[in-house]
Amino acid sequence: MPRFPVTLLPRLVLAKMMPRVPAATLPSRLALTSRSASSVSSSDELLLRDDDESTGVTSLRLNNPTKYNVLSAKMLDRLGEELDSISKDDSVRVITVEAAGDRAFCAGHDLEEIHSQTKEESTELFKKCSDVMTTLRTMRQPSIARVQGIATAAGCQLVLSCDLALCSAEARFGMSGIRVGAFCSTPAVALSRSGVPSKQALQLLLTGDLVCAETALSYGIIGKVVDGELLEEETLSLARKIAANSPLGVQLGKQLYHQLDECGTLEEAYALATDKMVCNLQHIDAKRGIHNFVTKGKNR
Questions:
Q1: pLDDT at residue 29 tops 90
Q2: pLDDT tens digits for 158-214?
Q3: Sorting pLDDT into bands at 50, 70 and 90, what band is 20?
Q4: 153 and 285 share a domain?
């Protein structure tokens, strides 16, 4: 792939890539990602994990803000390792996916890294990325993206791959690969599977334009827009509310919801849902909860 440094692009093109975005909120290399993550001293520092054992909420924080938290091969390795560990950990009930810095949640892949790769290395990179996104969707624990700044290309794909997403009013979203001649093929999968309407999805993919938080909300890319200073509090509140519910009920519900997409007919969907409902009702959490509800009703 030819290299297209942002600094060499005409100002007019840059202006078109940054609609309605205050200059102070945008990194100079924007959605085209940034320099290699090699300047970070250790791959262990690229991703931070914080477990709140009292609530069952675990946060994963992309920690390369000077490079706009790009999904380099090392970052994807760390995400894959932590998600694999979390998926086997019964003490973790909900995951939040967040990022360090104010300018970017994640600016997609590292183009300098991709520029120097062989075909085989690129294949390995995108397989790693696809595996991470698939794990987020299929693992038992629900995930919540907390988005500030820009989320572009694979960064937007990361948001879409989480089960829920909140963002600040200043957040911006886009599929910028087409700007450098690389259609966002793998992010297109996340757009399609997330229920974003096809015309809006294709407009993002074919123009490379950024859209504001409210537009992303209307597309279904995110679920709620909040003031920036309340974003952390709102995300944690949502995570704790979900974590306080029955783990089996939450996990079964997440898996069922995504499996419904694979059902070919309405009858198949209801058959699957019936099976899951009956299974859920046999669990001690549901038995206890229903017993308490019925008992309280009789004592009124």
A1: no
A2: 999 999 999 999 999 999 999 999 999 999 999 999 999 999 999 999 999 999 999
A3: very low
A4: no
Residues 292 and 236 in one domain: no
Whether residue 130 is found in the same domain as residue 235:
yes
- Which of these three, 197, 226, 243, is where a domain ends? 243
DSSP the chain: -----GGGS-HHHHHHHSTT--GGGS-TTGGG--S-GGGSS-GGGSEEEEEETTTTEEEEEE--GGGTT---HHHHHHHHHHHHHHHT-TT--EEEEEESSSSEEE--S-HHHHHT--HHHHHHHHHHHHHHHHHHHHSSS-EEEEE-SEEETHHHHHHHHSSEEEEETT-EEE-GGGGGT---HHHHHHHHHTT--HHHHHHHHHH--EEEHHHHHHHTS-SEEE-GGGHHHHHHHHHHHHHTS-HHHHHHHHHHHHHGGG-SSHHHHHHHHHHHHHHHHTSHHHHHHHHHHHHHHHT-
In a domain, 1, yes or no: no
The model's pLDDT over 97-109, given as tens digits with 9 standing for 90+, comes to 999 999 999 999 9
> Residue 122's domain spans which residues?
6-243
- Same domain? For 74 and 212 the reply is yes
